[in-house]
Write a structure and sequence with these properties.
The complex is a heterodimer of chains A (203) and B (202).
Chain A: H1 6-32, H2 34-57, H3 68-88, E1 97-102, E2 110-114, H4 115-127, E3 132-142, E4 145-154, H5 160-178, E5 184-188, E6 200-202
Parallel strand pairs in A: 4-5
Antiparallel strand pairs in A: 1-2, 3-4
Helix pairs in contact in A: 1-2, 4-5
Chain B: H1 12-20, H2 25-50, H3 60-68, H4 76-98, E1 105-108, E2 118-122, H5 123-138, E3 145-149, E4 153-158, H6 168-182, E5 184-185, E6 189-194
Parallel strand pairs in B: 4-6
Antiparallel strand pairs in B: 1-2, 1-5, 3-4
Helix pairs in contact in B: 5-6
The chains are: A alpha+beta (203), B alpha+beta (202).
Chain lengths: 203, 202
């Protein structure tokens, strides 16, 4: 529901994984297959000669250092910046406003309803239910439209469809108060789940 | 600031896809941190070299020469082990990027039509609800029922109390009735196993 760039994540992770895999397989082959070792000697010696030539051709006049090192440092800085930007994209997308409308009435100005209205109202309505171990409500910004995510943690054995129906009634009441249809996602979950488990076991 | 908010609901199918599939945020962060650490070390060595200072850990010239001579200068076992570890990390990242990454969740069909909220349920919640129904239908204690919910299959294992028959069809009917009321998407098939041996004193 948040705006984590899932496709970008997949592509970048797959590319990095492929590169690590290639390097690892090359190292294993170098250690085991002599033919690969001789190919590696000829190839890498050629590549190193080319790099050496580039470095010696780009020396500072009158000094032994190459300005190519500064270029390398700049490229690495840009790479680090891109990686930080990538991390910053994860889990973004929380919003503050539930509704933002121009008021056509006589009083000039806009009407704004904060996401806290829905969050507090629904949390309060769900707080004292005996069949719930917990409930959280959050407002997200989904492509410019505010949407609500209601996460319910029912106790064991609660029928999820009946719970969902009752929460839908609460959402309908909230929509009547706010005066606007709100896209809502209800997630009925289990707490302290372990990851990487396909089948769920419950006594 | 008098921007009109269009009264269009966002693409609910997209939201539901994102809720039932992993975002790989943790793996992505780990990958980014890995790249940052390697790039920071490279940046340090490049910067040190650019201003003509001695290298911090290893001179790039020496490192490159060692890389070229690679099968020599290191035991094959260590080289192979390093390669295997790198390849394993690479495989983990690659599979994380390529596999579908479904979460153990189902949709409740009520959320499909527009206007009503979309509902996503963890398989664990479905399993505990079905276990309760199966337990009531079989008239056994909670310890004697185990339900496993996967994408397209629900397996109900019942161990009867010794001396008391458990009606296989009654349990199946109860579980299927509960599943029909839930209207899960994708809809799983129910399989009920009644254990041949009973539990004493339950």
């Amino acid at each position: 529901m948040n705006s984590t760039p899932t496709l970008l994540n997949r592509i970048l992770i797959a590319v990095l994984g492929l590169k690590l895999l290639a390097v690892g397989v090359l190292l294993i082959l170098l250690a085991t297959v002599p033919a690969v070792a001789s190919w590696w000697h000829s190839w890498s010696a050629g590549a190193w000669a080319g790099a050496n030539q580039a470095f010696s051709a780009t020396r500072f006049p009158g000094r032994s250092e190459s300005w190519l090192w500064i270029l390398v440092a700049l490229v690495l800085l840009v790479l680090i910046g891109l990686m930080v930007a990538w991390i910053a994209q994860q889990g973004k997308g929380r919003a503050n406003l539930l509704a933002l409308e121009y008021d056509p009435g006589e009083v000039p100005g806009d009407v704004r309803i904060g996401g806290g209205v829905a969050e507090q109202a629904l949390k309060h309505a769900l707080a004292n239910r005996p069949d719930l171990a917990g409930a959280t409500v959050a407002t997200y910004d989904v492509k410019g439209t505010p949407a609500l995510k209601i996460r319910l943690l029912p106790r064991q054995g609660v029928a999820p469809h009946l719970l969902a129906d009752e929460v839908q009634a609460l959402v309908a009441a909230l929509e009547a108060v706010v005066g606007k249809r709100i896209p809502v996602l209800i997630h009925i979950g289990a707490g302290a789940r372990t990851r990487f488990r396909r089948a769920e076991r419950v006594r | 600031m008098s921007r009109h908010q269009e009264d269009q609901s966002p693409d609910m199918g997209r939201i539901l896809y994102r809720e039932t599939h992993s975002t790989r945020a943790a793996v992505a962060t780990a990958a980014a941190v890995l790249v940052i650490v390697v790039a920071a070390y490279g940046l340090l060595e490049a910067g040190v070299h650019a201003i003509g200072q001695p290298a911090w850990l290893i001179e790039p010239q020496v490192a490159a020469e060692r890389l070229i001579a690679l099968p020599a200068g290191i035991t094959p076992l260590l080289l192979g082990a390093i390669g295997a570890v790198l390849a394993m990390f690479g495989l983990v990242f690659f599979l994380n990027g390529v596999l579908p990454g479904r979460r153990a969740r189902h949709l409740l069909a009520g959320g499909r039509d527009a206007g009503r909220p979309a509902v996503v349920v963890d398989d664990e919640v479905v399993a505990s609800s079905l276990a309760r129904r199966a337990r009531l239908a079989a008239n056994v204690t909670p310890e004697q029922v185990m339900v496993v919910v996967s994408k397209r299959q629900v397996v109900v294992n019942v161990r009867p109390t010794s001396g008391v028959r458990v009606e296989h069809d009654a349990v199946l009917d109860a579980v299927e009735g509960e599943l029909a009321a839930m209207a899960l998407d994708p809809s799983p098939v129910v399989q009920v196993n009644v254990a041949p041996s009973g539990v004493i004193g339950a």
